[in-house]
Amino acid sequence: MGTPGGRGIPVGESTQTIDVGGVSRTFHLYRPQGLAGPAALVVMMHGGFGTGDQAERDYNWDTEADGGHFLVAYPDGQGRAWNAGSCCGEPQRTNLDDVGFITAMVSDIERQLPIDPARVYATGMSNGAMMALRLGCQSDTFAAIAPVAGTLLTDCSRARPTSVLQIHGTADDRVPYNGGPGKAFAVNGNPRVDGPSVESVNATWRSIDGCGPPNSTTAGDVTTQVAGCPNGRTVELISVAGAGHQWPGGVPKPVLQQLVGLPAPSTALNATDTIWHFFTRNHR
Protein backbone atom coordinates (compact mmCIF):
# COMPACT_ATOMS: atom_id res chain seq x y z
CA MET A 1 0.00 0.00 0.00
CA GLY A 2 1.10 3.56 -0.54
CA THR A 3 2.07 6.17 1.99
CA PRO A 4 -0.87 8.40 3.10
CA GLY A 5 -0.53 12.04 2.10
CA GLY A 6 1.84 11.32 -0.77
CA ARG A 7 5.06 12.49 0.88
CA GLY A 8 6.49 8.98 0.64
CA ILE A 9 5.65 8.62 -3.07
CA PRO A 10 8.87 9.23 -4.98
CA VAL A 11 9.23 11.26 -8.14
CA GLY A 12 9.48 8.85 -11.04
CA GLU A 13 8.17 5.29 -11.18
CA SER A 14 7.20 3.15 -8.19
CA THR A 15 5.59 -0.29 -7.95
CA GLN A 16 2.75 -0.81 -5.50
CA THR A 17 0.55 -3.67 -4.34
CA ILE A 18 -3.06 -3.63 -3.18
CA ASP A 19 -5.42 -6.37 -2.02
CA VAL A 20 -8.68 -6.58 -3.96
CA GLY A 21 -11.15 -9.26 -2.92
CA GLY A 22 -8.39 -11.34 -1.39
CA VAL A 23 -6.24 -11.14 -4.53
CA SER A 24 -2.91 -9.31 -4.48
CA ARG A 25 -2.69 -6.92 -7.45
CA THR A 26 0.15 -4.70 -8.60
CA PHE A 27 0.45 -1.43 -10.47
CA HIS A 28 3.17 1.03 -11.43
CA LEU A 29 2.70 4.72 -10.70
CA TYR A 30 4.60 7.47 -12.49
CA ARG A 31 4.86 10.82 -10.72
CA PRO A 32 6.59 13.58 -12.72
CA GLN A 33 8.75 16.23 -11.14
CA GLY A 34 7.11 19.50 -10.11
CA LEU A 35 3.64 18.05 -9.59
CA ALA A 36 1.62 20.62 -7.63
CA GLY A 37 -2.00 20.74 -6.57
CA PRO A 38 -4.69 18.22 -7.48
CA ALA A 39 -3.43 16.40 -10.57
CA ALA A 40 -5.07 14.55 -13.42
CA LEU A 41 -4.61 10.76 -13.46
CA VAL A 42 -4.35 8.61 -16.59
CA VAL A 43 -4.81 4.85 -16.21
CA MET A 44 -2.93 3.08 -19.02
CA MET A 45 -3.82 -0.61 -19.47
CA HIS A 46 -1.52 -2.92 -21.38
CA GLY A 47 -2.67 -5.33 -24.06
CA GLY A 48 -3.00 -9.09 -23.78
CA PHE A 49 0.33 -10.80 -23.02
CA GLY A 50 1.69 -7.41 -21.88
CA THR A 51 2.46 -5.89 -18.48
CA GLY A 52 2.30 -2.48 -16.88
CA ASP A 53 6.07 -2.19 -17.18
CA GLN A 54 5.89 -3.01 -20.90
CA ALA A 55 3.16 -0.41 -21.46
CA GLU A 56 5.25 2.18 -19.65
CA ARG A 57 8.21 1.47 -21.94
CA ASP A 58 6.34 1.24 -25.23
CA TYR A 59 3.72 4.00 -25.30
CA ASN A 60 5.63 7.10 -24.11
CA TRP A 61 3.20 8.14 -21.40
CA ASP A 62 5.91 9.09 -18.89
CA THR A 63 7.28 11.70 -21.30
CA GLU A 64 3.75 12.99 -21.91
CA ALA A 65 3.20 13.24 -18.15
CA ASP A 66 6.42 15.22 -17.72
CA GLY A 67 5.11 17.84 -20.14
CA GLY A 68 1.48 17.77 -19.03
CA HIS A 69 2.13 17.49 -15.26
CA PHE A 70 -0.18 14.55 -14.54
CA LEU A 71 0.08 11.09 -12.98
CA VAL A 72 0.07 7.82 -14.90
CA ALA A 73 -0.90 4.45 -13.43
CA TYR A 74 0.06 1.23 -15.22
CA PRO A 75 -1.89 -1.65 -13.66
CA ASP A 76 -0.89 -5.28 -14.23
CA GLY A 77 -3.53 -7.63 -15.56
CA GLN A 78 -3.76 -11.02 -13.86
CA GLY A 79 -2.01 -13.52 -16.12
CA ARG A 80 -1.17 -10.64 -18.49
CA ALA A 81 -4.83 -10.17 -19.43
CA TRP A 82 -8.01 -8.30 -18.47
CA ASN A 83 -11.57 -9.46 -17.98
CA ALA A 84 -13.12 -7.18 -20.58
CA GLY A 85 -16.35 -9.19 -20.89
CA SER A 86 -16.16 -12.02 -23.40
CA CYS A 87 -12.36 -11.65 -23.50
CA CYS A 88 -9.64 -12.44 -22.39
CA GLY A 89 -7.69 -15.34 -20.91
CA GLU A 90 -7.84 -16.53 -17.31
CA PRO A 91 -9.43 -13.30 -15.97
CA GLN A 92 -12.39 -13.81 -18.31
CA ARG A 93 -12.68 -17.53 -17.55
CA THR A 94 -12.75 -16.92 -13.79
CA ASN A 95 -14.83 -13.71 -14.10
CA LEU A 96 -12.16 -11.73 -12.24
CA ASP A 97 -13.40 -8.37 -10.99
CA ASP A 98 -11.04 -6.11 -12.93
CA VAL A 99 -13.48 -3.20 -12.76
CA GLY A 100 -13.21 -3.51 -8.98
CA PHE A 101 -9.41 -3.67 -9.16
CA ILE A 102 -9.01 -0.56 -11.32
CA THR A 103 -11.46 1.52 -9.27
CA ALA A 104 -9.77 0.36 -6.05
CA MET A 105 -6.39 1.33 -7.52
CA VAL A 106 -7.65 4.82 -8.33
CA SER A 107 -8.99 5.17 -4.78
CA ASP A 108 -5.65 3.99 -3.37
CA ILE A 109 -3.76 6.58 -5.41
CA GLU A 110 -6.21 9.27 -4.24
CA ARG A 111 -5.33 8.40 -0.64
CA GLN A 112 -1.66 8.93 -1.40
CA LEU A 113 -1.65 12.01 -3.61
CA PRO A 114 -3.96 14.94 -4.34
CA ILE A 115 -5.95 13.80 -7.38
CA ASP A 116 -8.54 15.88 -9.23
CA PRO A 117 -11.56 13.53 -9.33
CA ALA A 118 -12.93 15.45 -12.31
CA ARG A 119 -9.84 14.52 -14.36
CA VAL A 120 -9.41 10.76 -14.08
CA TYR A 121 -9.06 9.01 -17.43
CA ALA A 122 -8.65 5.49 -18.84
CA THR A 123 -6.87 4.33 -21.96
CA GLY A 124 -5.52 1.02 -23.13
CA MET A 125 -4.18 -1.07 -25.98
CA SER A 126 -6.04 -4.08 -27.45
CA ASN A 127 -7.33 -6.13 -24.47
CA GLY A 128 -6.53 -3.05 -22.37
CA ALA A 129 -8.67 -0.96 -24.74
CA MET A 130 -11.51 -3.43 -24.24
CA MET A 131 -11.04 -2.99 -20.50
CA ALA A 132 -11.15 0.80 -20.89
CA LEU A 133 -14.46 0.43 -22.70
CA ARG A 134 -15.79 -1.81 -19.92
CA LEU A 135 -14.76 0.78 -17.34
CA GLY A 136 -16.61 3.44 -19.31
CA CYS A 137 -19.70 1.22 -19.35
CA GLN A 138 -19.64 -0.02 -15.77
CA SER A 139 -17.97 2.55 -13.52
CA ASP A 140 -18.48 6.21 -12.69
CA THR A 141 -14.81 6.97 -12.12
CA PHE A 142 -13.64 8.23 -15.51
CA ALA A 143 -14.25 11.56 -17.18
CA ALA A 144 -13.19 10.17 -20.56
CA ILE A 145 -11.87 6.95 -22.08
CA ALA A 146 -9.64 6.37 -25.09
CA PRO A 147 -9.41 2.77 -26.36
CA VAL A 148 -6.76 1.96 -28.97
CA ALA A 149 -7.24 -1.14 -31.18
CA GLY A 150 -10.09 -2.50 -29.06
CA THR A 151 -13.79 -3.29 -29.26
CA LEU A 152 -16.77 -3.46 -26.92
CA LEU A 153 -17.31 -6.93 -25.44
CA THR A 154 -19.46 -6.22 -22.40
CA ASP A 155 -22.89 -4.93 -21.40
CA CYS A 156 -23.08 -1.15 -21.74
CA SER A 157 -26.80 -0.64 -21.16
CA ARG A 158 -26.34 1.29 -17.90
CA ALA A 159 -23.43 3.50 -18.91
CA ARG A 160 -23.48 7.14 -17.92
CA PRO A 161 -22.55 9.69 -20.62
CA THR A 162 -18.77 9.79 -21.02
CA SER A 163 -16.49 11.35 -23.63
CA VAL A 164 -14.88 8.68 -25.81
CA LEU A 165 -12.02 8.69 -28.32
CA GLN A 166 -11.40 5.51 -30.29
CA ILE A 167 -8.21 5.02 -32.34
CA HIS A 168 -8.07 2.08 -34.72
CA GLY A 169 -6.14 0.95 -37.79
CA THR A 170 -8.23 0.03 -40.79
CA ALA A 171 -5.99 -2.99 -41.53
CA ASP A 172 -6.15 -4.47 -38.01
CA ASP A 173 -6.41 -8.27 -38.46
CA ARG A 174 -6.61 -9.10 -34.70
CA VAL A 175 -9.49 -6.77 -33.79
CA PRO A 176 -10.96 -6.13 -37.24
CA TYR A 177 -12.13 -2.60 -38.01
CA ASN A 178 -15.31 -4.00 -39.58
CA GLY A 179 -15.96 -6.41 -36.70
CA GLY A 180 -16.28 -10.18 -36.62
CA PRO A 181 -13.65 -12.78 -35.72
CA GLY A 182 -10.05 -11.66 -35.85
CA LYS A 183 -6.86 -13.58 -36.36
CA ALA A 184 -5.80 -15.53 -33.27
CA PHE A 185 -3.19 -13.91 -31.06
CA ALA A 186 -1.45 -17.18 -30.18
CA VAL A 187 -0.39 -20.27 -32.08
CA ASN A 188 -2.95 -22.43 -30.25
CA GLY A 189 -5.75 -20.27 -31.63
CA ASN A 190 -6.57 -18.41 -28.41
CA PRO A 191 -7.60 -15.84 -27.62
CA ARG A 192 -9.60 -14.87 -30.69
CA VAL A 193 -11.59 -11.64 -30.58
CA ASP A 194 -15.05 -11.56 -32.12
CA GLY A 195 -16.82 -8.27 -31.56
CA PRO A 196 -18.74 -5.44 -33.18
CA SER A 197 -17.22 -3.08 -35.72
CA VAL A 198 -15.35 0.01 -34.64
CA GLU A 199 -17.98 2.22 -36.27
CA SER A 200 -20.82 0.48 -34.40
CA VAL A 201 -19.03 0.87 -31.06
CA ASN A 202 -18.68 4.57 -31.82
CA ALA A 203 -22.39 4.74 -32.67
CA THR A 204 -23.22 3.04 -29.36
CA TRP A 205 -21.38 5.75 -27.46
CA ARG A 206 -22.99 8.52 -29.51
CA SER A 207 -26.35 7.07 -28.47
CA ILE A 208 -25.31 6.85 -24.81
CA ASP A 209 -24.11 10.46 -24.86
CA GLY A 210 -27.03 11.81 -26.90
CA CYS A 211 -24.70 13.19 -29.56
CA GLY A 212 -25.43 14.70 -32.94
CA PRO A 213 -24.15 13.15 -36.19
CA PRO A 214 -20.35 13.11 -36.57
CA ASN A 215 -18.38 15.42 -38.82
CA SER A 216 -15.49 13.80 -40.69
CA THR A 217 -12.15 15.21 -41.84
CA THR A 218 -9.20 13.46 -43.47
CA ALA A 219 -5.52 14.44 -43.43
CA GLY A 220 -3.24 11.95 -45.14
CA ASP A 221 -3.84 8.50 -43.64
CA VAL A 222 -5.79 9.86 -40.66
CA THR A 223 -9.57 10.29 -40.71
CA THR A 224 -11.20 11.93 -37.70
CA GLN A 225 -14.90 11.79 -36.89
CA VAL A 226 -16.15 14.12 -34.16
CA ALA A 227 -19.68 14.19 -32.73
CA GLY A 228 -20.71 16.96 -30.38
CA CYS A 229 -22.74 15.91 -27.35
CA PRO A 230 -24.56 17.67 -24.49
CA ASN A 231 -22.62 19.25 -21.62
CA GLY A 232 -19.45 19.67 -23.68
CA ARG A 233 -18.78 15.96 -24.18
CA THR A 234 -17.58 14.54 -27.49
CA VAL A 235 -17.45 11.09 -29.05
CA GLU A 236 -14.62 10.76 -31.56
CA LEU A 237 -13.13 8.12 -33.84
CA ILE A 238 -9.71 8.32 -35.44
CA SER A 239 -9.09 5.78 -38.20
CA VAL A 240 -5.55 5.25 -39.45
CA ALA A 241 -5.58 3.93 -43.03
CA GLY A 242 -3.48 0.83 -43.53
CA ALA A 243 -2.45 0.56 -39.88
CA GLY A 244 -2.64 -2.86 -38.22
CA HIS A 245 -3.03 -3.97 -34.62
CA GLN A 246 -0.82 -1.38 -32.94
CA TRP A 247 -0.42 1.78 -30.87
CA PRO A 248 0.31 4.45 -33.52
CA GLY A 249 3.47 6.34 -32.65
CA GLY A 250 4.57 3.67 -30.17
CA VAL A 251 8.05 2.22 -29.81
CA PRO A 252 8.89 -0.25 -32.63
CA LYS A 253 9.77 -3.78 -31.50
CA PRO A 254 11.11 -5.46 -34.67
CA VAL A 255 11.88 -8.88 -33.17
CA LEU A 256 8.57 -9.14 -31.30
CA GLN A 257 6.64 -7.80 -34.28
CA GLN A 258 8.16 -10.47 -36.52
CA LEU A 259 7.55 -13.17 -33.92
CA VAL A 260 3.82 -12.50 -33.58
CA GLY A 261 3.22 -11.15 -37.08
CA LEU A 262 2.39 -7.56 -36.21
CA PRO A 263 3.35 -4.48 -38.26
CA ALA A 264 5.53 -1.64 -37.01
CA PRO A 265 3.55 1.20 -35.40
CA SER A 266 2.25 3.78 -37.85
CA THR A 267 3.98 7.15 -37.78
CA ALA A 268 0.92 8.91 -39.22
CA LEU A 269 -0.36 9.62 -35.69
CA ASN A 270 1.07 10.02 -32.21
CA ALA A 271 -1.68 8.26 -30.27
CA THR A 272 -0.36 9.21 -26.83
CA ASP A 273 -0.16 12.93 -27.60
CA THR A 274 -3.54 12.84 -29.34
CA ILE A 275 -5.21 11.07 -26.41
CA TRP A 276 -3.74 13.43 -23.80
CA HIS A 277 -4.97 16.48 -25.72
CA PHE A 278 -8.40 14.85 -25.93
CA PHE A 279 -8.37 14.23 -22.17
CA THR A 280 -7.44 17.85 -21.42
CA ARG A 281 -10.65 18.97 -23.15
CA ASN A 282 -12.85 16.67 -21.05
CA HIS A 283 -13.61 16.62 -17.33
CA ARG A 284 -16.48 15.83 -15.06
UniProtKB/TrEMBL annotation:
One family name in Pfam for this protein: Esterase_PHB
Would you tell me the protein name for this molecule?
Answer: Polyhydroxybutyrate depolymerase
Q: Which UniProt keywords apply?
A: Hydrolase, Signal
Q: Which residues form a coiled coil?
A: none
Source organism's superkingdom? Bacteria
**One of the record's GO cellular component terms:** extracellular region
Any one Gene Ontology molecular-function term assigned to this protein's record: hydrolase activity
